[in-house]
Amino acid sequence: MLRLKAAEQAVQKRLLFERLNLHVYGYLDGSYTQNFNHPANTINELRVFDVNSNQFRPNLAQIVLDRDATAGSVTDRIGFRVKANVGRDSAFVGGTNLSELNQWADFQEFYLQYLIPQGNGIDVKVGQMNTLIGYETIESPYNANYSRSWLFGLGQPFTTRGVRVSYRFNNRVWAALGVINQINGNLLTDATTPWIESSVTLVFSDHVKLTLYGFTGPGIGPNKVSWGNNLFGGGFLSVQATTRMSMVLEAYYATIANGSLVQNGKNERWGGVAGYLLYDFSKEWGMRFRSEIFNDTGGFFSCRGTTAYQPQANVCFGATSTQPAPPVSQTLWEVTATLQYKPVSWLITRLEYRYDKSNHNVFQLGNRATNYQPTLSFEVIYLF
After folding, report:
1. Among 311, 316, 312, 342, CA closest to 328
2. Rounded to an integer, what distance in angstroms lies between the CA atom of residue 173 and that of residue 160?
3. What is the chain's Cα-based Rg?
4. Is 4 contained in some domain?
């Protein structure tokens, strides 16, 4: 009798969600990373979400409640999303943490949506959203590899807050434009001088797609600078070579006026190139390769974290629990190979080897500095 009643309640709940066009989903993500340098500070230097060395990491438990805006009545055109996280990654996502003292939980996304009935529908979102910038994402299940690239982890924004307008001109061209005043949970400017975020996607065929993105504004970081040479531009090209193999090439260049931490009065310039190769042997097994080069001429984006993982996780040798390492102008290289096994649709496992290299001794070998860092990671993701 109790089982029957529980089943009836479950059916009623499902029907209600379908009637209201509501969706609930998420994932659980955990990992273990072995750093063969055995750093004394137990940190994988210059990493973002895989920062714990030689230990288990409860990365993230994420749950999403959303409603997609669709064409139809006024109520059909109203949508929203709330994305909540719990785990070690929450401190770095750039969401709204539930408290300053406990950054194990945050709201990564929260926005309202309305589909204006003009043309193919003008999609307007107001609130906090994942950025338009970059190929990789915050959410591990949607990335090719477990570890994040330096292009994403060090040089790109994660979340932005403001107003975003998107429009799909046809099946080949769609674009988005955002007016924002907050990046990764940090206020950028006052309300009269917002930043602009944009992207354009061009679909050349069923197998080739190009996404271009841009970012510009009057200031960034703790030391605001006036309007000037503050630009971020790039994109990524996706090619589905065969039914089993795809390739992605991403590149960007960015600059901040007077933003260099190495040379006062000089511009900060950063950017790089990353290439991805994804090959699926079957529905269950696949290999993902990545290689990249990242350049930080002004030391603005690398070596900014502390051993307390605050305010960022990109720690370099010499950092303490309260003080980051001195800024350094450096060029970084890395190669990553990831073996993915997906026995069922709701479970992803990954075994990943990564080798990092810098032209400076920013990594840690035991208690001393070195210019390389090899790691081996194992990740398990449960989707629901």
Report:
1. 316
2. 23
3. 22
4. no
Q: Which residues pair with 338 in a beta bridge?
A: 288, 352
**For 94, left (φ over 0), alpha (ψ -120 to 50), or beta?**
left
User: Cis link prior to 311 (omega < 30° from 0)?
Assistant: yes
Residue 339 is encoded by which pair of tokens?
A: 């073996």
**Residue 322's CB: how many other CB atoms inside 10 A?**
9
Report the alpha-carbon distance of residue 334 to residue 320 in Å, rounded: 25
In a domain, 67, yes or no: no
Asked if residue 95 is part of any domain, the answer here is no
Q: Is 77 helix (H, G, I), strand (E, B) or coil?
A: coil
- The CATH number linked to 144 is 2.40.160
pLDDT tens digit string along 108-139?
999 999 999 999 999 999 999 999 999 999 99
Which residue, 276, 252, 257, is CA-closest to 267?
Answer: 257
Domain count, the chain: 1
pLDDT band at 261 (very low <50, low <70, confident <90, very high): confident
Residue 70 is assigned to a structural domain of this protein: no
- Tell me which DSSP letter residue 40 carries: T
Domain that holds residue 238: 36-53+111-373
